[in-house]
Amino acid sequence: MEGGHGDAEEVEDVIAGQKEDGEHGDAGDAGHERDELPCLPRDCVAGPDWDGLRRLHERVVGGERDPALVAAFPFDEVGARAPWPWRGAALRLYANLLGTIPKRSA
After folding, report:
1. Smallest Cα–Cα separation from 43: which of 2, 9, 8, 90?
2. pTM for this prediction
């Protein structure tokens, strides 16, 4: 996997775009409890699938805590249709992170 500053800049651009859209709280909140629910990543589903995911979210947040609701949602199917434009940058960032962790001998 490639490393370098380009990967970090790509991820920073994605995060900056999400903040502009109001999708994430202040970066200073990292590691602290927050009252608001977590937001889904940008482009985690394709446009036509967004309504179904939003309805599921509203039902769960509204108090329907039935595991069958989540089990019935076709996450794999809608995930396969999602554009995930930031996936490559996320994979490289994660691979770079793992590369910094020393290997333990067995």
Report:
1. 90
2. 0.48
State CA 63 to chain mean position distance: 23
Q: Check pLDDT > 70 for residue 50.
A: yes
Q: What distance in Å separates the CA atoms of residue 98 and residue 25, rounded to the nearest whole number? A: 26
Q: Kindly report the number of other CB atoms within 10 A of residue 52's CB atom.
A: 13
Q: Which residue has the tokens 């910094």?
A: 100
Report H helices in 1-106: 5-20, 47-61, 67-72, 75-81, 87-99
Contact by Cβ (8 Å): 78, 52: yes
How confident is the model over 66-89, as pLDDT tens digits?
Answer: 999 999 999 999 988 888 888 889
Cα–Cα distances in angstroms (integers) from residue 17 to residues 11, 44, 86, in the given order: 10, 15, 11
Name the token pair of 72: 């019935």
